[in-house]
Design a protein that fits this description.
CATH topology: Rossmann fold
Protein name: SDR family oxidoreductase
Radius of gyration: 18 Å
Shape: globular
Keywords: Oxidoreductase
Number of helices: 8
CATH superfamily: NAD(P)-binding Rossmann-like Domain
Order of helices and strands: EHEEHHEHEHEHHHE
Organism: Alkalicaulis satelles
Strand order of the largest sheet: 3-2-1-4-5-6-7
Structural class: alpha/beta
Largest sheet: 7 strands, parallel
Strand content: 15-25%
GO molecular function: oxidoreductase activity
CATH class: Alpha Beta
Distance between the termini: 57 Å
CATH architecture: 3-Layer(aba) Sandwich
Family: Belongs to the short-chain dehydrogenases/reductases (SDR) family.
Number of strands: 7
């Protein structure tokens, strides 16, 4: 039977690479997002507002029914919780609406999707891959909401793995800076700043979306069959390096 992967946030830089990599690995890819993805990225696209679904049972039920129809007989094997909200603000300027949206999209929606699709994932002896972040361990000013949500997602990964045991594996992939179109646009005309970012990583470069995607495909593969509750840091060594003045 064909295996399927449900990938949230498919339209972003990492999401698009995830869709292409899972398709290349033989999966039927169901992509979700608020902006439609191309046919080269997923086999079926389901529009989704994760912020709304985190709080609205009816919206979540409608989404789940559409996803199940889109499977077209394939077996849901992998749920990849990739979508994320990153709202930057200093503590005194962070609104409660921004805080709630961040937690809804980055933490509550992934948990609710696991609950919703647990019967299919368990039947397939499948896996959940949460896309975390190095910000769960080390962060920067104005990232309070994002960093907190990702730290909680890493914790959720461990808790789900313990609860679900051999029924469904749960892992987390935590990238550092990745050369997505959004990140690169932010450095347009700022070559020195981009070189400084690269130099923070012992590998002297940032990661590529394809590298993150291949790591996720590995975590879903039989080669990672003994991995659950763990976080794989795809960080170019940045978390291993002190940044004290020389």
């Amino acid at each position: 039977m064909t295996r399927a992967a449900l990938i949230t946030g498919i339209s972003g830089g990492i999401g698009a690479a995830l869709g292409q990599a899972f398709r290349a690995a033989g999966y039927r890819v169901i992509g979700t997002g608020r902006q439609r993805a191309g046919d080269d990225i997923c086999d079926a696209f389901v529009e989704a507002d994760l912020n709304a679904m985190a709080e609205d049972d009816a919206a979540l039920a409608r989404f789940a029914a559409t996803v199940r129809d889109a499977l077209e007989g394939a077996q849901l094997y992998a749920l990849v919780n990739n979508a994320a909200a990153q709202i930057l603000a200093p503590v005194e300027g962070l609104s409660m609406d921004a805080w709630r949206r961040t937690m809804n999209v980055n933490l509550t929606a992934p948990f609710r999707l696991v609950q919703t699709f647990l019967p299919e994932l368990e039947a397939a002896r499948g896996c959940v891959i949460n896309i975390g972040s190095v910000h769960a361990q080390a962060t920067k000013p104005e990232f309070a909401a994002y960093a907190t949500s990702k730290a909680a997602l890493h914790g959720l990964t461990r808790a789900l793995a313990v609860d679900l045991g051999a029924r469904v594996r749960v892992t987390c992939l935590a990238p550092a800076a990745i050369s997505t179109p959004m990140l690169m646009a932010g450095f347009e005309g700022r070559e020195a700043a981009f070189q400084e970012l690269e130099a923070c990583h012992p590998l002297n470069r940032i990661g590529a979306p394809e590298e993150a995607a291949q790591a996720a495909v590995f975590l879903a593969s039989p080669g990672a069959a003994f991995a659950t509750g763990t976080t794989f840091y795809l960080d170019g060594g940045v978390l291993s390096r002190l940044h004290d003045p020389v």
